[in-house]
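Structure request: MoaD/ThiS family protein, Qipengyuania oceanensis.
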Amino acid sequence: MSVTVVFLGPLRDMAAQAEMEVPAPLDWQGLLAAVGPDVADQLREARVNVACRGKVLSDKTALDARDGDEVALLPPVSGG
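Returned structure:
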């Protein structure tokens, strides 16, 4: 039983991996512990979003990922 955490954009570089498997279920505190301190610091920023099962969470601290779910970590998008 596991959840796939997908790192996108600069978070991928910080994590030094594109994705990782973590035990299910996964909540906010579990996510912060699993991704390491540098990525966790970024996730605490309001501009970084978290998606679960393909939907961006309005309250990322309410994360409740279950077996087989994908959690995507979405850094802010820049451009013009």
